[in-house]
Amino acid sequence: MSLDPITLSVIQSGLQQVCDEMDLSFSRAAFSPVIAEANDRSDGIYSARDGSLIAQGAGGLPVFVGTMQYSTRTLIEMIAQGSVAAPEPGDIYIVNDPYLGGTHLMDVRFAMPFYRNGEIFCWLSNTGHWPDTGGAVPGGFSASATSVEQEGLRLPPVRLFKKGVLDTEIYSIICSNIRVSEQRIGDVKAQAAALLVGEKRLGRILDRYGDDVVAEAIDELRRRAADQMRANIRLIPEGTYRSTAYVDSDGVVDEPLEIRLAITAKDGELVFDFEGSSKPCIGPMNSVLATTLSSVYLAMRHIFPDVPISAGAFEPLNVKTPEGTFLDAHYPRPVSGCAAEVSQRIAEAVFAALVEALPDRVTAAPAGSSGNFALGGHDPDRGRGFVMYQISGGGYGGNSDHDGLTNGCSTIGISKAPPVEIMEQQFPVLYHRYALREGSGGAGAHRGGFGLDYEIELRRGHATASFVMDHGRFGPQGALGGRDGMPNSVTVYQDGEALVPAHLSKAQDIPMKPGDRVRVGTPGGGGYGDPLDRDPALVGEDVRLERYTAQAAAELFGVVVSSAGEVSADETAELRKALRKDRVAGAV
Predict the structure, then answer these.
(1) Range of 561's domain?
(2) What is the number of domains present in the chain?
(3) Which of 121, 135, 224, 477 is most buried, taking the most CB atoms under 10 A from its CB?
(4) Beta-carbon count within 10 A of 381 CB
(5) pTM (2 d.p.)
(6) 75-133: per-residue pLDDT in tens?
(7) Are residues 554 and 428 located together in one domain of the fold?
């Protein structure tokens, strides 16, 4: 290599900074709270040769790490085949087709060729979650869709901007098929502006170091990322590790879907085999291949976070195409739940398989649900329609060093719930409750983090509520003797009567009128290690803070504690001794 390490490091940081500035520009300029406040978006730089990932913003959603490189690769191939118009400087393509390297229809991707000396040097691309792309229900999360057409408008790659000018005809077609269309121009222009910021910043790096030097650095960074991932994989004893994770249901058939995973470690590489997983489902919990692959990649990023974000990091990860399962969806299978929910079950399966092999690096299962809640209707005070999209966090799994994080973001991203004040300002709703969900963390030597408990009332007008969540039937898995976290819960109150959806955390078109409320409890993380090994003082502190009752402390952790958090050491020792004795007797 002719590059010195300092120059290589500076270029690596520079490429990362380009993506970070695109992310920041996108969020600051966007109209929708889900992008502007929740940061449900991502920006990156991709190879002109094969669309492979060069760099991605640190604040971008990890699930887009894999999907955007596949969508960029597909775009490049379609241009080469002549099925998509060839680009010119200033062109920006729009695409949301999930079967062309995407996720669900609400994740809309923009891609712009970056030119140097008349040639495409690389591609700049970003993804933003639009609050609505049409379909059967406001927000796009149709819990009972049986075909992708019911989920919204599907866009193949087309040039939305031509030589820097918005194509008003294509934009009119889009607006004619989505709700609250008059508000989308803010997000569209923000998404395009982020790419233009990236174009300027990347141009400065190339002007400073030269195109050949930067190209050489990109190739070297990819090689080093692959080597680093292989070195980490060699920490795993060679062999095959298995796990099973479950999706509550597909929203149509009330039966769980199985994700069966076998991971084989050999010669610094991993093979992921999903053979035996459930067949394609009728409802929207199918996953397209790009999302399945990206879910594996992001799970390994959780386990080995020191490996740089680059396509090279994925080279030692070999995922067998899960043909004939719901993890390899093809048209017209509905897929609205793939990125938001199924992806997190895939990551959970990876964690569960590898936790025994890497107990110091892998956690118990996190909440693993984005908590997709959409409320759409008409606000009479403002004389217009609205679509409110709420995401929510949950507990992280405990690990070998400490308890799981409480109310953390989902496994697939860094998105946070929009502030309550913003939501009440933008939409005709009132939050009656927004608090920790006490007791939801799974018991363990290091317990799981707690989920979120919130309640929303519709104040005026009329609306319909829809949910595509998960972990309502099964809580997040505990690890190495830890207990599962508390499952997700949804309750709708209509005229004072409580309704629990038949599919627990999936439902659509629930009519809401002023005074009706929705209460959601998000899952707690799984516990790590034997609960009877937990430090009694930590249990006492949890009881003092009313996270667990004294009775729960005795039943779950074998700790005798007062409601004030004072632990009785002698009684605790006796209780734990008896519980261990009962456990042995039960095993026999």
Answers:
(1) 535-587
(2) 3
(3) 477
(4) 9
(5) 0.94
(6) 999 999 999 999 999 999 999 999 999 899 999 999 999 999 999 999 999 999 999 99
(7) no
